[in-house]
Amino acid sequence: VHLGVTKSVLGVVWLAGPLSGIFVQPIVGAASDCCRSPWGRRRPFIAGGGLVACCTLVLFSFAEDIGSFFGDSGETHPVGACIAIVAFWIQDCALNTIQGPCRALVADVLPAEYHAAANWSISFSTGSAYWIAYGSGALDL
């Protein structure tokens, strides 16, 4: 909203999570199943997704400044908004690139008797982080 994005556009932007989960995770899962890296099948995707997520977080954080550099001024920031939206979507894809292999890594490295506890731990941690992240979005900073 700060960049001049309407609430209806924000609704479309928030579709990134479900859509990237539907499309990205199966593709990454199939690719990681076939991966023959010295790092293992899952770790290259976790590292690559983490790197992309970090880069897009920086890009998202400085979207308004980058937009101003390219000519945005006044109340609306169309270039900054476009940069923020694209960075957000790419970041969501990167996070889904990380999540699938992290779950699969459990089956790869842990004995079967620990799978349930490990999957519970991952789900609890992810769910808690979502609550914190979405809750902090409601704060007026």
Provide an overview of this structure.
By secondary structure, the protein is mainly alpha-helical. The chain is 75% helix and 0% strand. It has 6 helices and no strands. α2 (16-34) packs across α5 (78-109), α3 packs antiparallel against α5 (78-109) and α4 (63-69) runs antiparallel to α5 (78-109). The longest helix has 32 residues, at 78-109. The chain is elongated. The chain starts with 6 loop residues before the first helix and ends in a 5-residue tail after the last helix. The mean pLDDT is 89.
- The average pLDDT score comes to 89
The separation of the N and C termini measures: 14 Å
Instruction: Please summarize the sheet with the most strands.
Output: none
Low-confidence stretches: none
DSSP helical segment count = 6
Question: What's the assembly state of these chains?
Answer: single chain
> What is the general shape?
elongated
Structural class: mainly alpha
Q: Helical proportion?
A: over 70%
Which sequence of SSEs, written as H and E, runs from N to C?
HHHHHH
Strand elements, count: 0
Radius of gyration: 18 Å
Strand content: under 5%
